[in-house]
Amino acid sequence: PGVVVTKELMDLCLSQGQSADAGRAFFLEFAAKQMAVFRGLGYRGAYLGGVHDVASIERILEIEHTFSADDWKQFAREIRFSRPAEYYQYDEDPVSGLASPRMGSTPSKLKSKGEGFIYGLSKLTHDVMFTSGRTLSNWGAEVCRKSNDPHQGPASMRALERVSKSILYSCKDCGDCSLPDIAFLCPESQCAKNQRNGPCGGTHDGNCEVEGFADCIWLRAYERLKHDGKEQSLLDHSPVIQDQALRGTSSWANNWLGRDHAASRMKNPKASELEK
Q1: Cβ–Cβ under 8 Å, residues 167 and 159
Q2: Which of these, 30, 145, 183, 233, could form a disulfide with 221 (CB 3.0-4.6 Å)?
Q3: Class of residue 240 by CB neighbours under 10 A (exposed 0-12, middle 13-18, buried 19+)
Q4: Contact at 8 Å (CB) between 140 and 129?
Q5: Are 26 and 6 in contact (CB under 8 A)?
Q6: Quick one: what percent of the chain has pLDDT higher than 70?
Q7: Bigger pLDDT: 234 or 154?
Q8: How do 90-92 and 99-103 pair as beta strands?
Q9: Does residue 92 sit in helix, strand or coil?
Q10: Mean pLDDT for the stretch of residues 199-205
Q11: CA dist., res. 17 & res. 12, Å (int)
Q12: What is the DSSP letter of 180?
């Protein structure tokens, strides 16, 4: 996921593969040129993938050491296999062909959208029902604590949770809800890989690489938050480790009674939160 081989690069590989040594000499030099680029950019090391013997590694290093100090700049111009109309964060320097200090002037083609009623309802409901210290949050915790099964809460409340979340989010009843972490989009039902820790990189023009899935939920989350002017909050996202022991229990009760990952985050706040 996230690796793209363009037609131009594929054609190059296929043509070199027709040579007498099946492209071995070419690709060893190709790797050496990439290492030279990394060195020129200031990296202190490089990972050599697909190289399976010491002799090949030694040959790559030997070739790389023959290059002069500024050769990497030419190599960087040569080794470019981007997709057509690909977006870059920085403009290209017309002289060097490398990135300039200026931010990219080409705006994203994707327009921010809040995605309407369900998103607005979700934000309001979360604010009213699941914000610590609020009246409904305190009441919910007390009711669930006194119920016959504190992991499920009162039967009527549990039924309301299942029906409402199934209709609104296609909820899979995981018991450790990540809706607030992803702008109220469910990773269990709307992500092929159930990604709770951010996008996997396997997208093209915002669409999931897995057949049958449409927009990446993390792109949708970004667009929703951008609409609210809160897209930078995604940078504060800490890894979410789902508690599988809670599956099939009430996520409402788990949140109110401090059993889900959100409660763990409150108990172990990040350094940036402590500073506030």
Answers
A1: no
A2: 183
A3: buried
A4: yes
A5: no
A6: 90
A7: 154
A8: antiparallel
A9: strand
A10: 80
A11: 8
A12: G
